[in-house]
Predict the 3D structure of the following.
Amino acid sequence: MSALIVNGMSIAIDQEGFLVDLDEWTEPVAEALASAEGLSLEAEHWEVLRLLREFYQEFQLSPATRPLIKYTALKLGPEKGNSMHLNRLFKGTPAKLAAKLAGLPKPSNCI
């Protein structure tokens, strides 16, 4: 287990970079996780991250890619809820990377 230092606080992460304690997620933590992935979070990223957190609150799980696309389309419309858009935002691994940045557990079917 390693740690991410955010605003002087040590945040525990697992070997894949997912938060050990989901309650430690904050927007600055998301920024630090994104930076570690070489990503700068823009408004479109935040929209999906907030949506993912909403999904997790409702269903208590991180969605795989297909449910993520369907849920995004349902909530944000088909122009944002499609694989091309989500793959562009999250470097070709939207379910896994977006869950990580949203401070959620890794989706169970992601390698």
Summary: The two ends are 18 Å apart (CA to CA).
